Amino acid sequence: MNSSNSATGIWPRRSSIAVKIAGTSIGGGAPVVVQSMTNTDTADVASTAKQVAELARAGSELVRITVNTPEAAAAVPRIRERLDMQGVGVPLIGDFHYNGHQLLTGEPACAEALAKYRINPGNVGFGKKRDVQFSTIIEFALKYAKPVRIGANWGSLDQAMVAALMDENHARAEPWDAAHVAREALIRSALDSAARAEELGMARERIILSCKVSGVQELIAVYRDLAARCDYALHLGLTEAGMGSKGIVASSAALAVLLQEGIGDTIRISLTPEPNESRTREVIVAQELLQTMGLRAFTPLVTACPGCGRTTSVFFQELAKTVQEHVRAKMPEWRIKYDGVENLTLAVMGCVVNGPGESKHANIGISLPGTGEAPAAPVFIDGAKAMTLRGDHIAQEFVGVVENYIATKFAQRAA
């Protein structure tokens, strides 16, 4: 059993095995990695490359794309080439179901262009064909030195595995309940497939496992059991999490528990996008989950009060939104230019009750006047009052204070 980090209460990263994916490390003590997935038709090179670039610029460190047809497989090298021309080096993961063995055989350039292959043991093949088709994909991974994620999902369980486990369960003196059998089927499917991959010559340092379900408590139970039974690097995600706040809350509730226990080396937040919403929201949620837990820092976070009867003006809400959006928009530039800027803390507060105190805890904080207070907004920098802002241009002036602080306090990276 791992011991807890006494300072943070967060257990050490569980996996001792480091997997390298085109320069990105997963497991072996590396920070938890953020993944995402496109929802474009992969055969549409321009649209897919555009969305991959958007996800990468939002902070996705790995991007998975669907590879389901010969046209999609043929498009992968062209997508990779287009991204490289744009200076977007994010690794691409090929998501294979049913026919991955055929697509890799027919398009070896696809096999080479991808940084990792995802294999679903529940549909890689059926009956006698299963082992042959699984072996074919592993052989391509070995040929091109690519890692694999063996990703079981309770929506596509290996039915032969389920049937065998049900037979085993009937013979037990105290049979498991149906949920326990389903969890065991997921875990056994992933572990047995990983063992087979090793038999074929795949090193443990090139295997990542996942066992995804769509229920919070089920996911926690599955991964606790999986983590206790292996030391492979693990990918976390609540599959089919849902849309909007439901998807965010469900994913955060499940993944936070596991991450706090040191389980998980890479994560994805599987949100259903709102109509016309950017796919990048899932990346932002994953980053904010890791950052609010103190596991990683990606971008300056803005602390803002919720508002009450003392803050009837919407100005502090508008300012908090302006600052948050400005930080998000500028972060790609700042990340390249300034070392450590992601650790900056900001506070936008709405009245005198908690405003000055909370502002002093941030690198830069502003305490706006609440109802009945004098129309003045003190600004605190590194715990000390630095100035007072008044008038109609507080938002622009405060953003300017943030920009100046970053330019003077954070070392510029070498060009």
Walkthrough of the structure:
The protein contains 13 helices and 17 strands. It has 415 residues and is of the alpha/beta class. Strands 3-4-5-6-7-8-9-11 form an 8-stranded parallel barrel, surrounded by 5 helices. It is elongated. The protein starts with 18 loop residues before the first strand and ends in a 6-residue tail after the last helix.
CA distance, first residue to last residue: 45 Å
Number of H/I helices: 13
Mean pLDDT: 93
Biggest sheet, in brief?
A: 8 strands, parallel, barrel
- Spatially, the strands of the biggest sheet line up as 3-4-5-6-7-8-9-11
Helical/strand content category:
alpha/beta
Q: Which ranges are low-confidence, i.e. pLDDT below 50, for 5 or more consecutive residues?
A: 1-7
Query: Shape from CA axes?
Result: elongated
Q: Total strand count, please?
A: 17
| Helix content class | 40-55%
Written as H for each helix and E for each strand, in order along the chain, the element string is: EEEHEHEHHEHEHHEHEEHEEHEHEHEEEH
Strand proportion, as a percent range, falls in: 15-25%
CA radius of gyration: 24 Å
